[in-house]
Each structure stands twice: as structure tokens, then as C-alpha cells.
Design goal:
Blueprint lengths: L1 H7 L10 E7 L2 E13 L5 E12 L2 E12 L4 E10 L2 E2 L2 E7 L2 E8 L2 E8 L5 H11 L6 E8 L4 E17 L2 E12 L5 E7 L5 E6 L4 E6 L1 H5 L7
Antiparallel strand pairs: 1-2, 1-15, 2-3, 3-4, 4-5, 5-6, 5-7, 7-8, 8-9, 10-11, 11-12, 12-13, 13-14, 14-15
């Protein structure tokens, strides 16, 4: 489940509406995810993005729900994550911005077991804005940083634009822009991302484990063989 968790945190998009995705492993439909965003009213307008889903890996059921809150220009403000494995809760993660930057707390059994403070990373809105600003000219290279639930810290991503491509979507072919990315670390995690013109993710392919997340409809995404939503 480790790489799968990393991947779903990288695909959330700011679309202004619900987005559903199928999770596939070695060509088999094993789960679904749903993303939705909305503007929060207040003294400073904010964007809230919710990502949630369910999958079945090695006969175990996994669930997750992540909430990201950002400024309209992509500055991280708040974060929360909770999940379960085979019915048992996974460690929760909560992040909050204060006067010194973003502080993350890992909570297990109601107790804080670790704290991480970092700055200069992106949540979903910021990541989408960056991708769109860099454009899709072949050969374009850039990097950014994101918070990893698995590593419980901020990790670095390196990206290089491959060029335009035609993507086989569940409901037919679609034009896309292909970008190869790598999460850097002791064991680099490579993946390919297909974007639309606005920097929204159409498909993400974890090339090392053949994990694919692809945009779909609610009906298709939740129709996991042998399982109900």
C-alpha cells in the first residue's frame, strides 16, 4: 500500500466539481477515489479539497480521507488525513499553519507520536498552478515538494515534460500532455502523469508497480469487481 498512498496524494486536482477515478493494479480494477473542491468563505477566501476513496490490496480493504485547505494562490493552510487497513485505523496526520510555518502532527491512539515542521511545499491547488505555469513544451524540467503520508515528511518531486499524447480513457480517447515525474528518496519512485491543458490530472501511472489511477465516471469507478462502494 505504500506506493499507492504516495500516488493518490499526487493526483488531486482543483476542478470545481466532483472527480472520480478508477484504481487499477496490473490491469485489474481494485478501487476508486473521489475528489471535490469548494471555496470557503471568510476574511481570506480559501479553497478546500477533499480526497477520499477505498481500495482492496492483497485481500485487505483500505480506506482514506484527506482534506487540504489553501489560499487561492496555493499557499498551504491546513491538512488532515485518516485511513484504515483491514478495519484497523491508520495513524492520523494533522497540519496547521502558524507564525513559524506549517506544523504536522502524527497521532496514534489519541496521542501525538511525531511532529514535523516544514515550508516551501505544495498542496493540490499550488501543484496545479505550478504545472500550468510551467507549460507543456517537450523537454521542460522543474521540481517541487509535497507532503507524503507514508514518509510523514515533505518529499521532492522532479518532473520533465515528454510532450503531447493521446490517452485511452474509459470512455474513449483523449488528448493529453505526458510528464514523467520521480519522487526522490532512498528508493526513487517513478511515475507518468497525463494532464489536460489546465494542469488537471487525467491519468497517473506508477511505472514501478503498474498502479494506474485514471479519471472515470462515478458508476465506472465504484463498480469494483467483487466489491460494493
Amino acid at each position: 500500500m505504500r506506493t499507492a498512498v504516495v500516488l493518490f496524494l499526487l493526483v488531486i486536482q482543483l476542478s470545481g466539481e466532483e472527480t472520480w477515478r478508477e484504481w487499477r493494479l496490473d490491469g485489474k480494477h481494485i478501487g476508486w477515489s473521489r475528489e471535490a473542491s469548494q471555496e470557503l468563505a471568510g476574511d481570506e477566501p480559501l479553497i478546500q479539497t477533499i480526497d477520499e476513496g477505498k481500495g482492496w490490496f492483497d485481500t485487505k480493504e483500505f480506506t482514506w480521507r484527506a482534506e487540504y485547505v489553501e489560499t487561492l494562490d496555493g499557499k498551504p493552510v491546513r491538512f488532515s488525513y485518516e485511513g484504515s487497513e483491514a478495519g484497523a485505523p491508520l495513524p492520523e496526520i494533522h497540519g496547521e499553519r502558524d507564525g513559524e510555518g506549517m506544523k504536522f502532527a502524527v497521532v496514534e491512539g489519541g496521542k501525538v507520536t511525531a511532529e514535523v515542521r516544514d515550508e516551501g511545499f505544495l498542496f493540490p491547488v499550488g501543484a496545479q498552478l505550478l504545472v500550468k505555469s510551467k507549460g507543456f513544451a517537450a523537454g521542460t524540467k522543474y521540481g517541487y515538494r509535497q507532503f507524503s503520508v507514508d514518509d510523514k515528511k515533505v518529499v521532492s518531486i522532479e518532473a520533465e515534460v515528454v510532450g503531447d499524447a493521446e490517452l485511452a480513457m474509459p470512455e474513449g480517447p483523449s488528448k493529453a500532455h505526458l510528464v514523467k515525474q520521480t519522487q526522490m528518496g532512498a528508493e526513487p519512485i517513478p511515475f507518468e502523469v497525463h494532464y489536460d491543458d489546465e494542469g488537471n490530472v487525467l491519468c497517473l501511472n506508477g511505472t514501478d508497480i503498474q498502479m494506474v489511477l485514471i479519471r472515470s465516471t462515478r458508476e465506472r469507478a465504484t463498480a469494483v469487481p467483487g466489491h460494493e462502494k
